[in-house]
């Protein structure tokens, strides 16, 4: 079942119907096709996206043209280039649809406006930002401390719905292994679960 924006916000704070109508007027709907970009490196202004339907990835291209996955986003998750969004900088990462997607987005100005007008919205966005920061820190520590098989198992526990939904090369990029290594890891996990 798809979570609506109101249900998502209500997990943290609540509003009257009238307040929510006003809050929701600051969000805009966007339908995107598989492989389309919502943010591209070099873009001047970016928005923050709430995923209603579909799967997206944010990634960085290094100087050797290698793709490094930073985040996957699925329904009920938020995604953007956070440095570009919060600091009004040029985007350095790409955010692309892995599948057809339905999204709601908000501009930085509208997010700041809502946060100023409603203390509860400021609280909501702070809780979401803190959760994102914690997830990012955990990801860094996972990459630094865990073996390849442990990173793969960690991915499966974090993203159980994605393991069958996205191409394997994206999973390999996310956990920092080659496609061949991912294939071996998958066989090891399959053999241990039989």
UniProtKB/TrEMBL annotation:
Origin superkingdom: Bacteria
Gene3D superfamilies: Jelly Rolls (2.60.120.10)
Domain Cyclic nucleotide-binding: 30-114
Protein name: Crp/Fnr family transcriptional regulator
Protein's organism: Sphingobacterium athyrii
